[in-house]
Amino acid sequence: MTSVPQYPPPPVAEPGAVSRLLAGILGVFSAALTVAGTFLPAAASSVTVNGQLQSSFSVSAWARDVETAPQSEQDLFGASHVARFGIPITVAAVVLLIGAVLVFTRARAAARILLIAGSAGLVAAVWTMGVDVSASLSFEQRTSVVVAHYTTGTGFWVMLGGAVIAVLVLALAAFGGGRWTAPWTPQPYYYPPVNDEPVIYSLTDPAPAQSWAEPPAQGELPPESEPGEEPTSPPFPPQDVQPAPGVEPPGKHRDDYDM
What we know:
- By secondary structure, this protein is of the alpha+beta class.
- It is built from five helices and seven strands, in the order αβββαααββαββ.
- It has helices spanning 17-38, 71-79, 86-102, 108-137, 154-175, and strands at residues 43-49, 52-59, 64-68, 141-142, 146-152, 189-194, 197-201.
- The strands form two sheets. The protein has a five-stranded antiparallel sheet. It has a two-stranded antiparallel ribbon with strand order 6-7.
- It starts with 16 loop residues before the first helix and ends in a 58-residue tail after the last strand.
């Protein structure tokens, strides 16, 4: 009798695969968003005296953009520069981006280290720039003569959003699941016993010889076995069959006993 084929169970999902892929995807977005924010105004200020605009400028992570200012202020701005927070932010973003790319390769240990280092450095750099922007807001002044207005710019909020995503990347890389250091190896499973001995099979080993018949191809019928030759003589000599009590023997009629 042909046994029914038993197929192995499907392989389980790799431990930590979801968190690893999310960390890689979010790492790319965080790095790109934060670097883009460094080129946008992080803070802006304007000074009005007696209702007339005296100076107006914005500051990014790289430079100062002066719109209107007295000549003395323009000379001062030309001889100085702002704190270039774009340098540490860009360095941290590059490290984070390299780690995010390595997530999709087999260098998972290096990817995890770079993701943690890059995301932590990016959060620290954005936080430091946020402290500087917060300090500039303290110069807000409103009097009957002078109105000095300071506000945050678009670049600050863009970088803050990238830093929030970097915090998620840091959490996923540090605490988000199992197998970062080495590629996942599937667990072996068991085939039906062959010769009363269980067969252990792993996805990395060749499959053992099957002990069941292969089903015929679709549309083809299995070949019929040819009938064997009938024996020319019975396998045993004929025997006399004695009738049971009360049963007439074959070939005789009840009337034969009356004659």
